[in-house]
Structures are given as C-alpha cells and as structure tokens.
C-alpha cells in the first residue's frame, strides 16, 4: 500500500504544476472528500499512477502508452488523444494525479450530470462549447479503431459516417449544425444506455 503523506503533498495553495517541479498530490483523505472514492482506493490508484509516472505528471505520449495497454486488439492512439485532450490541465498541457482521479470519479461513479459533462468534453474536441458533426465523426472513428478486432461486426469508414449522420441529426434538434450540452442531455434522457455504458469503467478500478 502506498502512503501519500504530507511530505508527498504540494502546498495546498498551489494547484498548478510547474515544469521542472516534482508534483505532489493532496493527502488521500482530502482527495476522498472531493471524489467518489475511499482513501484506500485512492492509495491503490496512486501506487499504479506513480509506477507509470514517477514524476507525478503525464504528457500525452505517456498517457497513450498506458492507455493502449488496455486495448491490445485495436489502435488506441487517436482515442487516447481525445481523452487526454478532455482531461489535461489547460495551462500545462499535462495530467496530474488529481486530474486523473477527478476524471475516473466523474465517469465511473459520478452523477448523471457529471457523466454528461465528461461525455460532452470528450466530443467537444476544440473546447468551444459545441459539438460539430466533424468532431463527433472523429471521436466515433477513434472508438472503432480502439475496438479493432473486438468490434462485432467489424465497422468500416462508410458505416461510421452513416451512424454519425443518423445520431447527429437526432441530437441536433434545432438543425443549426451543432449539438449543445442541453441537446446532448435531452438525447441521453431518451437513451439511458449511453450513460450506462460508462459505468463499465468502474469494474477496472
């Protein structure tokens, strides 16, 4: 078991990791109060995180390498890029343990609204608060590449585009060419399976 002591924690007044500095997370008890995990679970996750990332922060390439280990039958590169883009620190372009934990907490055990927020951030690739058809298509294609040989039946490029066209048309209720957070929420209320699919991540922890 890893002990995340006060010596492993940053000054609580500083939450921005600076290049060249060794990142130290808050104590597990503090992190537990801000997440849906117990201190024990957080210690276990921190042990794995530190094994893969001794400096305490991940860049995109390191994140892709870790992510790809969970999907050996497909190509996780592009999907990992979109996930990292959604969760990275906007100033540093890197991912620390607290941000990693926050994402897992929201996706695996969060409320309906937290899961919706995560899903929207994933598909809103450029971060402008709207999901375009091209953004949705890029992420869906990345999902198919991620699944690789595990996809049944195999999905080709044309099928992915047809799928996105059909779903995007249904989500974009005012036909303005973009999907807003409210439109996504209304669609997920009609099709709860979209959110239930995220719950499978809880079994990994």
Automatic annotation (TrEMBL):
InterPro entries: EF-hand-dom_pair, EF_Hand_1_Ca_BS, EF_hand_dom, Recoverin. Residues 111-146, 159-194 form the EF-hand domain. PROSITE patterns: EF_HAND_1, EF_HAND_2. This is Kv channel-interacting protein 2. Pfam families: EF-hand_7. It comes from Danaus plexippus plexippus. Residues 1-21 are annotated as: Disordered. The keyword Repressor does not apply. The keyword Heme does not apply. Belongs to the recoverin family. GO terms for molecular function: calcium ion binding. It comes from the Eukaryota. Keywords: Calcium, Metal-binding, Repeat. The lineage of its organism: Eukaryota, Metazoa, Ecdysozoa, Arthropoda, Hexapoda. CDD domains: EFh.
């Amino acid at each position: 078991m890893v002990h995340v002591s006060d010596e492993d924690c940053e000054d609580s007044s500083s939450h921005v990791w600076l290049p060249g500095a060794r990142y130290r997370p808050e104590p597990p008890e503090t992190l537990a109060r801000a997440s849906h995990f117990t201190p024990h679970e957080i210690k276990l996750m921190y042990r794995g995180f530190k094994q893969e990332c001794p400096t305490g922060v991940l860049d995109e390439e390191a994140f892709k390498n870790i992510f790809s280990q969970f999907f050996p039958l497909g190509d996780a590169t592009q999907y990992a890029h979109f996930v990292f883009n959604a969760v990275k620190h906007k100033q540093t372009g890197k991912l620390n343990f607290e941000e990693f934990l926050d994402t897992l907490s929201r996706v695996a055990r969060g409320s309906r609204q937290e899961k919706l927020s995560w899903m929207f951030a994933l598909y809103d690739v450029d971060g402008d608060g709207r999901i375009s058809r091209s953004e949705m298509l890029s992420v869906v294609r990345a999902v198919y590449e991620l699944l690789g040989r595990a996809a049944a039946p195999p999905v080709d490029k044309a099928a992915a585009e047809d799928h996105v066209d059909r779903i995007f048309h249904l989500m974009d209720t005012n036909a303005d060419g973009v999907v807003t957070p409210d439109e996504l929420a209304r669609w997920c209320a009609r099709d709860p399976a979209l959110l239930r699919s995220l719950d499978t991540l809880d079994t990994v922890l």
